[in-house]
Amino acid sequence: MLPSTLLATLRAALRSRGAKPVLFLICLGPVAWLLRGIWLDDLGANPAEFLIRSTGDWTLRALCLVLAVTPLRVTLSIPELARLRRMLGLFTGFYACLHLICYVWFDMDWNLPDITADIVKRPFILVGFTGWLLLSVLSATSFNEAIRWMGAKRWQVVHRSVYAVAALALLHFFWMRAGKQNFAEVAVYVAILGSLLGWRLLRTYRARRNELHQR
Amino acid sequence: MTSRSSHFGFIHPHSHEITPKDVYMQRRDILRGMALGVSGLAGAGWSDRQALAQTAKPGVLPALAGAPSSVAGAVSMDKVTAYKDASSYNNFYEFGYDKADPARYAHTLQTSPWTVEVEGLVKRPGKYTLEDLLKLSPMEERIYRMRCVEGWSMVIPWVGYSLLELIRKVEPTGNAKFVEFVTQADPKTMPGVRSGGLDWPYVEGLRLDEAMHPLTLLSFGMYGEVLPKQNGAPVRLVVPWKYGFKSGKSLVKIRFVEKMPVTAWVKAAAQEYGFYSNVNPNVDHPRWSQATERRIGEEGGLLAKKRKTLMFNGYEAQVGQLYAGMDLKKLF
Q1: Residues B187 and B303 occupy one common structural domain
Q2: Which of residues 92-111 of A touch B (CB under 8 A)?
Q3: Residues 6 or more apart whose Cβ sits within 8 Å of residue B97
Q4: Within 10 Å of residue B132's Cβ, how many Cβ atoms?
Q5: How far is CA B148 from CA B20, B311, B316, in A?
Q6: Partner-chain contact B301 A44, CB within 8 Å
Q7: How far is CA A102 from CA A63, A186, B150, B155, in A?
């Protein structure tokens, strides 16, 4: 629990009109940093590899952030956090798009037969692509009209597939690192995303148990 | 009074003896200008390379000069990779998995004193100090293409001499069929060795005829200077027609044996990395294609097209006959 004065300030800040624009700018930070690197030719010996990998890293980080919103909102009692969730989700999709574009452009030069051959050779590409596809469906149905149109219940079911996106992203990352048996970073993301999902499962389990007791 | 130090077993010049980089670059321009003037535009490419034969020194480490090599295929005409890239982007798992790790962590490597033990099926086994090895044969500069199994490539001016010179000196017996290279594995100075990964020490191997091919280089330097630690100081192997991992860094033992050595990568993943590991665009790695490569520092930067990978990394004319009649799809 946060001290009450700090909590109040934080909540007021999140309620303010500036909150969303500030978050928007913060979320653009990584891409601005990468563009600066391209401009100054400061991305190391293999800039293509650097861009492909760092856009992937930022997609994973954004995914961790967006999935952390609800646990933080509930455990710290900051309901205002919910206002920021959609933007974080859309930025996850944005970085996933950049990641895909970097691969298709810099690694594959838009050559479709090569890409198809690559997917057969490297199934982890297919796993990543499936994750991107799912994430795009979520991004495309993120606006209010879509919720009304689909019905809140159905919308929620569809948007729960963000957990499938997380699983696919982790498998994609794990597989990519498997070549060098270098799993330290993978383990960090598994721990973060695993505990965020674990928290939700625990909450659902407790809610069900309470329901049973009340009956 | 300043004194000369002899780190790495090399005599360091006093700082005032080192030609300032500007002056050096100027000299290159003058030479290039002369070459252009004399030979005219038709021969410009070749003259350019001749003028550059002794690559401009980056001014980072003690100088180690090599005369332009006369071995066939030893001087590639491709644009030389920037020193900064060649010394900051490579695999040396003893210092970590990331290709930036060697440059970050290899400063702990102790390269002096250094000995290389020659053992096994030879008439004259023994311990060779780095100083012995440096004096064994005249230094040559060789500009080789380097193709990593991961799909990227560089062009690096190495300094050293054919491993053949050492092999002649130690006289392998008739039973010797293979050469095994054992590299440094010191948990105290190599973080990657502490944290597991491969079965240390890193072992590589060549067939004796491969080891005796004049292109197989025992290298002590690059870009006119001694090897940076992250590139395998103080002495390493360079086998330009094989994937980079075949070229062991920071060698401590050279063993002449009868049976094919079990190399570190064969031990780790025999279905992915064969003993030969010749660069071959027609034999894919099980998990990715080997048909193309990204040349580091290629003109055009991010949007540069990948290059087609050449059979034996473009050294087919020189080494193709070593593999006559072999099924390279099976013996990859």
Answers
A1: yes
A2: 106, 109
A3: A180, A182, B192, B197
A4: 15
A5: 34, 14, 17
A6: no
A7: 19, 21, 18, 25
Q: Which amino acid is at A24?
A: F
Classified as helix, coil or strand, B324 is coil
Nearest CA distance, B74 vs chain A (angstrom): 24
Q: How far apart are CA A82 and CA A87, in angstroms?
A: 10
Do B47 and B90 belong to one domain? no
pLDDT in tens, B54-70: 567 899 999 999 999 99
Query: Are B167 and B225 part of one and the same domain?
Result: yes
Q: Is B281 on the interface with A (CB under 8 A)?
A: no
| Strands B67-68 and B140-147, sheet pairing | parallel
Helical residues (DSSP H) of chain B, grouped into ranges: 21-39, 44-52, 83-86, 101-105, 130-136, 163-170, 191-194, 208-211, 264-269, 316-319
Sign of the C-alpha dihedral computed for residues B2, B3, B7 and B11 taken in this order = positive
Domain count of the fold of chain B: 2
Residues 6+ apart with CB under 8 A from B295: B78, B152, B153, B154, B155, B304, B306, B307
The residue type at B33: G
Write the pLDDT tens digit of every residue in B135-189: 999 999 999 999 999 999 999 999 999 999 999 999 999 999 999 999 999 999 9
- CA neighbours closer than 13 Å in the CB half-sphere of residue B45: 6
Is the residue at B331 inside a domain?
A: no
Q: Spell out which residues of chain A touch residue B297, defining contact as CB-CB under 8 Å.
A: 45
The model's pTM is 0.85
Among B287, B292, B293, the strongest candidate for a mutation testing the A interface, having the largest count of A CBs within 10 A, is B287
Place of tokens 């490597």: B109
